[in-house]
Amino acid sequence: MNRLLGAELAKLRRSGIVWVAVGAPLFLALQGIANFLRYRDTMFAGSARTEWEILYEQCIIMYPALLLPLVITIMVALLARLEHSQNGWKQLLALPVTRGQVYRAKLVIACLLVLLNLGVLSIGTLAGGIMIGAEGTVPYGLILGRGLLAFVATLPVIAIQFVLSFRFTHVGVPLAIGTALAAPTIFAANSEQFWLYDPWTYPVMVYFGPTKEEFARGDWMYAGACGLFLLITWIGLQEFKKRDMV
Predict the structure, then answer these.
(1) Are the C-beta atoms of residues 221 and 84 closer than 8 Å to each other?
(2) What is the pLDDT of residues 26-63, one digit of tens each?
(3) Closest CA to 125 of 43, 190, 36
(4) What H or E segment, with its residue span, contains residue 22?
């Protein structure tokens, strides 16, 4: 399993997917910092919130509902495309590994990519705030802690996109479905009833919960996210084991 992961990580470095994971949140963090500096002495002056809270909000404002689900969709689809093209499955399954090991290794890599994406945004926001001298105590729990919690919240989305991307050989299918599922996120997130049934809203609750009471949810949401992840992963693994790859 370790050798398989090492080989897959080496393949990943050559594919350029890592740049998608890093580039998108880095751009968003820089944009948020620039927007904060632009309005620091005007619109944000005299606010009851600390500068760190304002900076945090500026950096993540478009992230959980729009950019994050789209980046997950793209990264997982590109990860699957590495094997869908050029008889990749035949070559991979010819190795002394089981289908279960292949599936789990690919899923671990997908999760690591999302964790990297979230980490870049958190660290970028933190580093930017320190560099521009944001006033107040640095809220490590808000900036870094929310990034880790958001990873747990995105697990069902990762699992769903993973199943779609590895089930359909044409990259356009998971991209289209993922985009369609992400589109109503902001509307579902504002509904007290329907948000629970849409895993795409979970990251929204994580990021905006500390600053907007209407998005605050209990810890049980994370348990539900983990449960959905395990269930969807199990279903996808069973289908993967039975599928005719060669």
Answers:
(1) no
(2) 999 999 999 999 988 888 887 788 899 999 999 998 89
(3) 36
(4) helix 17-39
At 187, list the tokens. 């509307």
Residues whose CB is less than 8 angstroms from the CB of residue 98 and which lie 6 or more positions away in sequence, other chains included? none
Question: Residue 245: pLDDT above 70?
Answer: no
Residues 6+ apart with CB under 8 A from 158: 72, 76, 107, 110, 111, 114, 229
Q: What is the C-alpha separation between 84 and 171, in angstroms, rounded?
A: 9
> Measured between alpha carbons, how far is 217 from 212 in angstroms, rounded to an integer?
11
Q: What is the pLDDT of residues 60-104, one digit of tens each?
A: 988 998 899 999 999 999 888 877 776 667 777 777 778 888 888
Token pair, residue 151, equals 């990873």
The Cα 200–Cα 71 span in angstroms is 12
For the chain, how are helix, strand and coil distributed in percent, rounded to 5?
80, 0, 20
What length does the chain have?
246
The total of other beta-carbon atoms located within 10 Å of residue 115's CB is 17
What's the token pair of residue 194?
Answer: 């329907």
Phi then psi for residue 184, to 5 deg, are -85, 15
Which of 80, 76, 77, 70 shows the shortest CA–CA distance to 24?
70
Two tokens, residue 192: 């007290």
Reported pTM: 0.91
